[in-house]
Design goal:
By secondary structure, the chain is of the alpha+beta class. It has helices at residues 11-19, 21-29, 39-56, 61-66, 70-73, 76-93, 143-147, 152-162, 164-168, 201-225, 250-255, 268-278, and strands spanning 32-34, 97-109, 112-124, 127-136, 172-181, 190-194, 241-242, 245-246, 265-267. It is 45% helix and 22% strand. The termini are close together.
Length: 281
């Protein structure tokens, strides 16, 4: 079964803990998720599901998108237009052997386990390459350069360098951003660009040490606070605005967990069940 969901103790979880512990509580302890995702996330989710079906060969990509839950499938028409253009590109440029699709890998940083779910691992010219899918309405030539400055690719690259060769017995090549035009209309549909060669050793070390320290703090906080909502309610008002607009869980911050259903929130376990049923699993 292909699971294209978030990693169990990945970069996004740790970044959320560091940024806003109220949001962390709602996502990671109460397990509440919006019943409908915003357009960029919905389209990205559909594209990831289609790519996982395509590269794993487990299901038809278009049908996989069509049968996804309503919280994302309302973007099906746009996502199919994006997917159809991507397939035209991929048929001409996918000169590799698929090794792994949406598989989770773990690495230990200062004794703490941190994980990453890698979209696609391939073998090309005798080396392993990580492909990270990113759908964007920005210029696809610009997006990889912006993303290369984030912490997430540094973690993925560390797993590529230190974990993948041991797992698969093949040397590591690098990390490629598979930036895909999400408008369905841009002249350039895809830009595949290597980004790991831009990471300096000091930058890598700083990011990984930061993740390790955050993981330690998270472990200590969960042991100390447990699941009591009141002690997680500090919150960071500045985190309410994201690059996609207002924080997805802001209604809960304003009105409280007791009003979750009223404001369109569902248990993450129910969301996962809907995804599995949609994929016929």
């Amino acid at each position: 079964m292909i699971n294209s969901g978030k990693s169990k103790r990945g970069y996004h979880r740790l970044a959320t803990f560091s940024t806003c512990q109220k949001l962390y509580y709602y996502q990671e302890i109460a397990h509440l998720e919006p019943d409908v995702l915003g357009e960029p996330l919905a389209l990205g989710t559909l594209f990831h599901a289609a790519a996982a079906a395509h590269y794993s060969g487990e299901a038809d990509p278009v049908e996989t998108m069509r049968q996804m839950p309503e919280r994302v499938s309302y973007m099906f028409v746009q996502a199919k237009r994006v997917w159809d253009r991507y397939v035209e590109y991929a048929e001409k440029h996918d000169d590799f052997r698929v090794v792994s699709v949406e598989e989770e890998f773990a690495i230990r940083l200062l004794g703490e386990e941190v994980t990453a779910r890698l979209d696609l691992v391939v073998e090309r010219h005798g080396a392993l390459w990580i492909y990270e899918h990113k759908s964007t309405k920005q210029n696809v030539t610009y997006h990889p350069r912006e993303w290369a400055g984030k912490g997430q690719p540094v973690l993925q690259d560390a797993i590529g360098r230190l974990v993948l060769p041991e797992v698969f017995g093949i040397p590591y090549g690098g990390l490629i951003i598979n930036a895909v035009d999400a408008t369905g209309a841009a002249a350039q549909v895809v830009n595949r660009e290597r980004v790991d060669d831009r990471f300096t050793s000091p930058w890598r070390d700083t990011v990984l040490m930061g993740l390790a320290n955050t993981a330690r703090q998270e472990t200590a906080a969960r042991e100390e606070r447990g699941t009591d909502a009141l002690v997680w309610m500090g919150g960071n008002a500045e985190a309410c605005m994201t690059k996609w607009g207002v924080c997805s869980h802001r209604a809960l911050c304003l009105n409280g967990e007791a009003h979750a259903a009223m404001h369109g929130f569902v248990l993450a376990a129910d969301v996962a069940t809907k995804y599995r049923e949609a994929a016929g699993r």
